[in-house]
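A.,

Following up on our hallway conversation. Structure tokens first:
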């Protein structure tokens, strides 16, 4: 069981050094923020929707810098 944990840790460390991993992570964060923004709009929580829009925009810009 400990060997599996060590193996997963090493795989995680390897992935953290790859640009594609971070581009995917920030793209996924932008997608989650988009869906949260849509839910906030549906429930008439406009300030929350604006905050999620700003967060989504920041995540998209960061993801774009990793893909260049």
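Then the amino acids I'd put at each of the 68 positions:
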């Amino acid at each position: 069981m400990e060997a599996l944990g060590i193996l997963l840790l090493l795989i995680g460390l390897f992935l953290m050094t790859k640009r594609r991993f971070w581009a995917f992570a920030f793209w996924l964060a932008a997608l989650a923020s988009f869906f949260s923004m849509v839910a906030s709009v549906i429930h008439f929580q406009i300030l929350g929707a604006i905050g999620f829009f700003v967060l989504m925009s920041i995540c998209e810009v960061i993801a774009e810098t990793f893909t260049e």
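The chain has a mean pLDDT of 92. Curious whether your intuition agrees with the design.

B.
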